[in-house]
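Tokens for chain A. Residues wanted.
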């Protein structure tokens, strides 16, 4: 997927049974509060990712950093999952969630590299015209990351579980931001 100064980033399909224990440690960690699974038991995580794996419009991937699990990415079709009735989807819209695994030794720039790699993987599909996200309105750290890769906030929406900031990133916006960043231009 991506090779950078921080190492190689790639994705593999998530296996709900073999990855549940790893995911449980990630999604229940205090740094993953916005994932909203803080009190989940191992079986809850396994069940949630089995549900996603069985869904025809939602899938999940384990992100690897130099071959080791380091992040989670979910891809969904917003016409059928997460945003049904909350906005008017356009052809080529793809929804996305990502979570970087908690670590005691954070690497400067790693999360930005992860979201860039995630966006590259989504836009590698020529049918993807726009990526849609709906992070919690209070998650200012992810809003800054989203903006850095080309997301434009549209409006706040009320989801059943949170007040969210609906944001879109077109292929052109992503390529423009990615091109500027790769040339060392501060964005």
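Reply:
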């Amino acid at each position: 997927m991506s090779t950078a100064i921080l190492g190689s980033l790639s994705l593999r399909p998530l296996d709900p049974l073999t990855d549940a224990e790893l995911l449980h440690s990630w999604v229940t960690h205090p740094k993953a509060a916005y994932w909203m699974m803080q009190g989940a038991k191992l079986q809850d995580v396994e069940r949630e990712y089995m549900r996603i794996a069985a869904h025809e419009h939602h899938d999940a991937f384990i992100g690897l950093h130099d071959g080791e699990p380091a992040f989670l990415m979910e891809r969904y079709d917003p016409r059928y999952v997460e945003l049904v009735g909350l906005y008017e989807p356009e052809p080529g819209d793809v929804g996305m969630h990502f979570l970087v695994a908690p670590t005691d030794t954070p690497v400067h720039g790693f999360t930005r590299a992860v979201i860039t790699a995630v966006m590259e993987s989504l836009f590698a599909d020529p049918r993807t015209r726009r990526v849609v996200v709906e992070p919690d309105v209070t998650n200012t750290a992810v809003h800054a990351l989203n903006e850095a890769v080309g997301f434009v906030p549209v409006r706040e929406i009320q989801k059943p579980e949170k007040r969210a900031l609906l944001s879109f990133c077109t292929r052109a916006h992503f390529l423009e931001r990615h091109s500027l960043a790769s040339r060392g231009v501060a964005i």
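The longest helix spans residues 110-123. The chain is about 30% helix and 30% strand.
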